[in-house]
Write a structure and sequence with these properties.
- The chain is of the alpha/beta class and 344 residues long.
- The chain has 2 domains: 174 residues, Rossmann fold (3-Layer(aba) Sandwich), CATH 3.40.50; 143 residues, Rossmann fold.
- It is built from 10 helices and 14 strands.
- Helix 2 runs parallel beside helix 10, helix 3 packs parallel to helix 4 and helix 5 packs parallel to helix 6.
- The protein starts with 5 loop residues before the first strand and ends in a 13-residue tail after the last strand.
Length: 344
């Protein structure tokens, strides 16, 4: 997989020691940690420094990749990472956070199932004196101050997707009169709102004329996107051409599948995914598909960077960077393999 470049905006400059020196300094420490949760823990490395990575929807491929990246980086640094799948359960997020605090872990990273729990989890970690990092979905405390964050810039991602969709739309010479746009994703998740709003704005800016946008709220799963898009398609059977994008690959591929199941030909679908790990399956199988392109994002690199930032902050006793933002790039059937995309 081609490594991504990272840009960092910091509240306080953080001095980094080399990974080798860090690993050496921790190697002599004893473990002495309590067993991890039985719900999908994965411990790597040795030493008394334990970082807990609490993930929503840990069975989705992006988050599986993220966990793998975290484990690999932890092994390199000689620290211990405990990865827990929270599913979509905010109560579990709170209880797992409490469990981590109770055993006095060194750092906590969270992909929250619901951003509404931000004030609660941030305050708990702060009261315990444990560094806290929000991964993928930004979190704010009761005063509206953002927790340190590692992930992607949602608006920039949406802009890339919308720009590509507009390019494909113009190349196809479609018109607004016979085209509609399906914008699919979780409507109460800030990163999804940013991505879809960014895509809509970029498409409108780049297209010769902008078709109507139909927004479909989902839980960000393939199944929910497929089912809800199916109802919209049934109500719009006179539409000839469809542009599809969404919050993630699950949303986009689910909607594209619904269109194809309804008898819409791939030539009449311009789908631009976000993630590429599902979008590329049709390309790998050399299938004629409505999935025309995707913005490639790497869960591996986000997980790796989250552990690296947290471990360095623990080692140096310094503040975490305010933001660690990953670069992304567009792929399609012609270059996804060369770019290192792994289809799942």
């Amino acid at each position: 997989m081609t490594p991504m470049k990272w840009s960092r905006a910091r509240r306080t400059a953080v001095g980094f020691l080399g990974a080798a020196a860090f690993a050496f300094s921790l190697a002599a420490c004893d473990s002495g940690q309590a067993p991890a949760s039985a719900d999908a823990p994965a411990e790597v490395g040795s030493g008394e420094t334990e970082i807990v990575y609490l993930q929503k929807q840990g069975d989705q491929q992006y988050f599986v990749d993220q966990a793998d990246g975290a484990k690999k980086k932890a092994a390199e640094l000689g620290v211990k990472v405990t990865v827990v799948n929270l599913g979509t359960d905010s109560n579990k997020a709170i209880s797992e956070l409490d469990a981590a605090i109770a055993r006095n872990v060194s750092g906590i990273i969270m992909v929250a199932p619901d951003q509404a729990i931000g004030p609660q989890v941030i305050d708990k970690a702060k009261a315990a004196g444990i560094p806290f990092l929000a991964s993928d979905d930004g979190l704010v405390d009761a005063d509206g101050d953002a927790a340190p964050f590692v992930g992607f810039n949602g608006t920039q991602m949406g802009d890339s997707v919308g720009t590509k969709a507009a390019e494909l739309y113009n190349d196809a010479a479609w018109t607004a009169a016979d085209t509609k746009i399906l914008a699919v994703g979780k409507q109460d998740l800030s990163v999804c709102v940013q991505r879809i709003d960014g895509a809509n704005a970029a498409f409108e800016k780049g297209a010769a004329d902008a078709p109507e946008v139909i927004t479909i709220g989902t839980d960000n799963s393939v199944t929910d996107a497929l089912n809800k898009a199916g109802a919209v398609i049934t109500a719009n059977q006179s539409v000839k051409n469809w542009v599809v994008y969404g919050c993630n690959d699950e949303s986009e591929t689910g909607a594209v599948t619904a269109l194809q199941n309804a008898g819409v030909a791939p030539a009449n679908i311009l789908g631009v995914g976000l993630g590429a790990y599902l979008t590329c399956k049709d390309w790998a199988a050399s299938q004629d598909t409505g999935n025309k392109a995707a913005l490639y994002i790497s869960g591996v690199d986000v997980g790796s960077a989250a552990i690296e930032e947290m471990a360095a902050a623990i080692k140096n006793g310094a503040d975490l960077p305010a933001e660690t933002i990953a670069d992304t790039h567009m792929v399609d059937a012609s270059n996804f393999e060369a770019e290192g995309v792994v289809c799942t």
